Structure formats: structure tokens, C-alpha cells
Amino acid sequence: MSDPQALLARLTHLLGSERVLTAESETQAYLTDWRGRYRGSALAVVRPGSVEEVSAVVQACAAAGVPIVPQGGNTGLCGGATPLADGRSILVSLSRLNRIRATDADNNTLVAEAGCTLAAVQQAAEGIGRLFPLSLAAEGSCEIGGNLSTNAGGVHVLRYGNMRELTLGLEVVLPDGRVWDGLRGLRKDNTGYDLKQLFIGAEGTLGIITAAVLKLYPQPRSRSVAWLAVRDPQAAVELLGRLRACAGERLSAFELVGRSALELVLQHIPNARLPLPAAPEWSVLVELSDPHADAGLDSLLTSFLESALESGLLLDATLAGSLAQRAELWALRENISEAQKIEGFSIKHDISVPVSRIPGFLAEAGRALRAAWPGVRIVAFGHLGDGNLHYNLSRPAAEDNDAFIARTSEVNRIVHDLVDAAGGSISAEHGIGQLKRGELQRYKSGVELDLMRSIKAAVDPRGLMNPGKIL
Amino acid sequence: MSDPQALLARLTHLLGSERVLTAESETQAYLTDWRGRYRGSALAVVRPGSVEEVSAVVQACAAAGVPIVPQGGNTGLCGGATPLADGRSILVSLSRLNRIRATDADNNTLVAEAGCTLAAVQQAAEGIGRLFPLSLAAEGSCEIGGNLSTNAGGVHVLRYGNMRELTLGLEVVLPDGRVWDGLRGLRKDNTGYDLKQLFIGAEGTLGIITAAVLKLYPQPRSRSVAWLAVRDPQAAVELLGRLRACAGERLSAFELVGRSALELVLQHIPNARLPLPAAPEWSVLVELSDPHADAGLDSLLTSFLESALESGLLLDATLAGSLAQRAELWALRENISEAQKIEGFSIKHDISVPVSRIPGFLAEAGRALRAAWPGVRIVAFGHLGDGNLHYNLSRPAAEDNDAFIARTSEVNRIVHDLVDAAGGSISAEHGIGQLKRGELQRYKSGVELDLMRSIKAAVDPRGLMNPGKIL
């Protein structure tokens, strides 16, 4: 590596001194992940404002042999955007690339730069009478570049897909600083390898995404939301199949909530209210939506629930009768993470298995964990429609919990081994980052790791892009 | 390369002599594409029956340094599955890998081997009360491996996506014979690079797909089909936007048909009948479908069409009143290719542009072609909902047409330059194969071609997989 001071001078020449941050007071917020689990170090934090500037920064870093860590809204959960502690890299913040470059209602697309917040993209879509359906808790501060780099999911994946399915084209600054303009707004394009797929979900290890063509949908104009008490997870899976068979794509959320998760919300979140006479062992939040203003969703859902009650799969249900009730039901689901944070630390897993294997996984994992730690508290909830569960564990008593947390890797082993045996994923929607690199090595086949390393070596032969992440 | 006879002996040892074809009478059907435009040659055609046999064949070929050409149902349109004429390669037919390995109604997936016909996959889905939505003219003989390798499209892409979007996992034999087992049936899995995306649409140049996990949907139980006469393509685009805004994902086809296309069908196809009093300059075939048996689609479509008539976008429309009428309307659209074949040779283009740019493209291309060849016949039709047109050109008189056909590259230049200027694709759904290699070099940027070559070199460093295709 050449002289770091020379690189900093070069970057200052390119961007101006106010865009090259080195003082700890200025860099601190970029060098720590928002949960405070990772603390990194960097030669500088730079804030380019255009794809040309990003390209120039990457060229300068490449010439100096200095690693680059791209960062968006810094809301990731796996330390993927936090540099390593060695202080050798340049952190490139994309937040100033925050223009909506174009909207096209007839093509149902918009072009957003990487630093647009998810909320800004949702608003731009709304501005032309369309929906951008990605929705997740951090949407006010997470940025599209990060959503792309982690292939973000959320509550509406069962209807609209992940970020990958919502993306038609990309613009990417490659590890040598060249710009790949793949900003095509096409639904059908079979002209060779689909390169955008490489960069989506690559967590910045293959290049820096600077802009994307995103898919839009009609805005929903009617909605119906219900809270269901179900016999058990198997009943939830059966209800999901039946509801899809009559509601089709109108089914826009199907969220499973275990009793401990619901109880934490009722305990810690002001104004949270039990929607049924007693807290069910397993609940499901269902949402139907339709672009037609007069789609008859309430009556469709009511008649479905009536027949499900008769069949015994469903124990009880309440349909939201007003906008306020709908918001109340959704708040029960959306506040689970917050309630858990208030309750204290827990060992979290973001896993997926085939939908058909959710009931078996829950039964086996529960048995294994209770055998190892009698009285363990299992907080399970998530996107049943996608086979994706947040499966979090703690001890009810604080004094026991510290000892339990110290055994995280034993807990992970039990949970992840069962996920693996069920053909599942140890990271359904949060990615790998620094957090799960070791687990990735354990659960991916040698062939798959080899293929991933070949791709990395082909696109980033000098290994300068976001080192120490994923691989 | 080592002795070809030694390789043939090795392959015969692995598969048995009846699975290693060398007699011209036996190999001929594999060595010519079905339209008879490409004629290749090969050391042998081999017919393995399992992934283990495919792996052994590839290992043997790799050891001998002999190129491999994978082939499915041999229904491709670009010569992608026809070997080069040099006779150096082994053609690997996947047709004997034709098992449905598993079905999972609760997970909405099935696992099909590469040699299953598309029709067999559709039937397997139906057998568990589900829909596999990919549908195209060759479905009785095309095979899933080919559909995957060309990222097949068809008439329902606007609702369900291309083959890529219908695929959750793959099993692939790599160029060195190792098997990558990526047969995961997960909607959410963010554990590193999404390797399956590399092989989908790669036309066999990176490995041999041997099996896939495919996504299933609820079966439609109601349908409504109408034939529309629209003012012009711009009116069709506006109607598409309005119809989506009220019908949402129920809109399962939106096909534009120009007058010459309709007239060819009326002229050449027995029992084809004009659905409206006069042949419109531009028609649209619309289909709505819904899993609910009692979805009120006819009344939704009728009231939509009434208001569109009032606004002047729509000139006339007829709604199919019976199953037979629905089939008649669909036959008008589906028989266009057949009618063209009967009429004679034409210069075909399978192109896409953003939906919003379809009207402008049609106007400009029409002007440019008519200026160069007064009286040129333009047969334009296709999947307007995806921005994908089949744009085919001929001279009405046979004697003029031969001279016109001889100028194919001039015609391509006019059409493809306008497609490129509109941000479009020169191959929307048929792929590149041998047919469009030259055009790909012309229209892809140097950066994109470099990236594609790096990927090819990383995954297939010896260049043994399907040489002379795409790159």
C-alpha cells in the first residue's frame, strides 16, 4: 500500500475537505453499527455526491491498494457495513446520492440513487399513483443501496418478493472504478448473464451499487386485516394454503406470532391490547389488500374465517372494523422487536425453512432447547407465508440470562443444525456480514463456497471490496 | 485433446452403448435445430439418465478436454443447443432426466429434473391442486432445463414473471463434473451470492442444470377474456395502466396485435373468425383470472370496458361469453406464428423496450422501415404488458421478399438501433445462442462484456461448456 496521507490528499482533492471526514467526532457514527455490536476503524469516511465521484474515489483507492467499505443508512443487523478494526480502509457513505432520477408510471418503474431512504422511494412511487411494496421497520433511515446489497425482505414478500424481485436494473461502480450502466427498465431481457443478480445481496463485496431501476405496483385501495387464534403451527400452514386458494395474490401478509412474543408486547408497549379474550398459544395476523376500492375483502375474509372455524383449524378470530383497529392489530406484530429490546438481551435467529416444515422445526427445536435448558423462553414469530421465522431465545430471569447468553454458540448449534436438516437458511433476510461468516463456512457445501470464491476473485481480484464480509 | 475414440469408449463404459449415439440416423435429430436453421456436428450424442451419470460424462469430457453441448427439448429459436460444425464436442441430451422428484403443496413447490417437459411440470402441479404458470407454444416438447437455460417467458410474465422468478433452487453439474446441490425451496435466503441466478439464462455456457425447485401458485378458478379494438398503441398503454389499477394481479395477459398479424391468422388458419365487425388497426387480447370461483371478473371487466369506451381510448370490445369463445379469442393470438410460417419467410425480432416507449418505438420503426422499403409489411404483436414485441417484417409479394430477406442485416440495424436508443433489449425472451452473438457484441457495453467474460472464465476456465454461444 502506498502512503495513506497521499490517498487522503487525493480524496480531498476529488471531493473537497468537507467530504473527507477523519476526526473521531465526525466518523464515529459511521464506524459503529446501530446496535453497537461492531466497532470499526477507517482511514477516513468519504461522502461522494454522484456516481462520477464514487467512481473517482474507487479509482483512487484501487490505485493505492486500499480497501473500500460501502455504507448506506447503517441500519444492518450483521455488521456488513462496519469496517474491520484494522483501520486500513476507506468508508464510502452513499447517503448523498439521494436523487430520484426518473419515474415512469406507464412502465411501473422509478430510478432511485443508492442513498435514497426506503421511505423516500415509497413516497416517490406514491407521487405517481403507484406502490413500492418493500416495507420494513427501518424504512425511515435505511437506504436503497443497503436494501439492494442485503436483498431486504419484510412483511410483504409473500406477495411482492424480496428486493431482488423488485429490481429491474442497476448501476454499479466496479472494484476498479469503472461504471457498469445496467439501468434497464425491462421485464424481459435475455441477453447474456443477468449481472445485476450478482450485486444484489452481495453486501458490497463485489462493487458499489449507485442506482437502481425499481418495480412499482398499483396502490392498494382496500384492505382487510384480522387477528386469528390457531390450533397450532400446522393449522396455520393449512389455513395459509386455503386462504391463498381463494384470495390469491390479494394475501399480502400472513404473520405467525407465538404466545411469548405477544405477551412481551402486551407487557412493554403502551396501549397494546389483547385482540381476543385470551392470549392464544399461536396467533396469525392476516392482511388482504386489493387495488380495487370496492373489492369485497371483508366479506371474502369473513366467509373464509367462518368455514375455518367450523373445520376446527381456527379457534377464534377478530376482523379489524376500522382503520384504528387495523393499526392496533399491526402494532401488535410490529412492536415485537421493540418489546424484546425492552425486556433485555436474547439470542436471535433469522431463519427460514420450507413452509411445510415450519411446524416440525418448531416442535423439534422447542424440544431440543427445553431439554438442554429447562424453562428456556422461546420467542418465535415471523413471516410464515415465506417460511421465515425470527426465533429468539432467552431465560426469563435476568440472572440466569447472562449465563445463557454466554452459551450463544451452543444455542446456535442446536437451532442452525435443525434448520440445516430441514433444508433451511441460517440467514433468511438479514444477510451474513461479519456476524455469520463462521456459520456460513459451516453450513455451505465446499462446492458452493468454491463457486462464491471464484466469483469474488473474478469480479474483485484484489479483494478490495468490503473485506471480511460474507467470505 | 486426447484420443476421441478413447473418450467414446469411456462414455460407453459409463452409460452403455445404447446411450452413446454416433450413427447419423440416430444423431441427426439432435444436431439440427427444429427450424432447420443450424446444422451442427458432434463426436457423439449421449443420453445419461441421472445426475450422477451427467457428472460422470462431464468429468470424462473435461479429462479429455472435449467441449460439451447440453440439450433439452431442442425447441430453441437461436441455435443455442446446436453444436458448432467442427464436430469436436459431445452433445449431452438431458431428456432422460425426466422425473418429478418431489411435490410440496404446503410450500407451493415441486422439484423437477431438467428433462421434464414443461407440460409434464404443469400436470404435476395440477396433480396437487396448484398452477405452474409458465406457458408457451412449445410446452408439449420443450424441457424445463431449456426453459431455465433460456429464462423462458411467454404470455403470463406480467403476472407471474419469467422462468427466473419461478425458480427457487437448482442442481447443476459444473464444468469440472462436480455437482452443486442448490435445490433449496426457500422464499428467503440471504446467505451469500445467489448462485442459481448465474446458471438461469446462461444457455448452458456455465454448467448443466439437472434439476430445479419451482414455485407454484393457486389454480385459477375463474377467468374472463375480451378482444379489444384500441385507438392506437398509446391508448393500449393507457388502458393497461388503468386496468392494472383496478384488477391488480388478476390481469394475467395483455397482448397487443397489429392488423397485419390478425389478417394473416384470418387468412391462413381454418375457423379463425374476426371477433369484431371490422379488423382493427390495433387489437388487445385481455385476460383476467382469479383463484376464487366466484370472483366477478366478467362484471369487473365489463364495467372497465364501458368506462374505457366512454373515454375514447377503446373503440370496440367483445367479451367471451363461453369457454368456446374464450378459446377462439386466444386462438387468434396463439396462431399468429403458425400463420406467418404458412405465409412465408420473414425477418423476425424478439425485442423489448420500457412499456411507456412502445408507442414511440412502433411509430419510429414504422417510419424508418417504410422510408427504406416502401410497402414493407410489418407484423407486430406481443406481450405489451411486459414491453415485449415480436416485430416481424416481410414484403407482401414473394418475388420482392427474397431480395428483402437478403438485406436482413440492414433491417436488423434499423430495428435494433431504435430498440437500443429506447433502452430496450434485442432479445427479450429467446436468448442469444448463435443467432445474436454478433448483435450482442454490438449493443452491450465493453464493461458489461468484460464482466460476462470474467464470469465465464471464473466458472468455466477451460471454455468447455457450450462454446460459440452467447460470448
TrEMBL record, chains A, B:
Tell me which residues make up the FAD-binding PCMH-type domain.
38-219
Q: Does the keyword Metal-binding apply?
A: no
What protein family is recorded? Belongs to the FAD-binding oxidoreductase/transferase type 4 family.
Q: Does the keyword Kinase apply?
A: no
PROSITE patterns per record: FAD_PCMH (PS51387)
Q: Which InterPro entries match?
A: FAD-bd_oxidored_4_C (IPR004113), FAD-bd_PCMH (IPR016166), FAD-bd_PCMH-like_sf (IPR036318), FAD-bd_PCMH_sub1 (IPR016167), FAD-bd_PCMH_sub2 (IPR016169), FAD-linked_Oxase-like_C (IPR016164), FAD-oxidored/transferase_4 (IPR051264), Oxid_FAD_bind_N (IPR006094)
Q: Which UniProt keywords apply?
A: FAD, Flavoprotein
Annotated Pfam families = FAD-oxidase_C, FAD_binding_4
- Full protein name: FAD-binding oxidoreductase
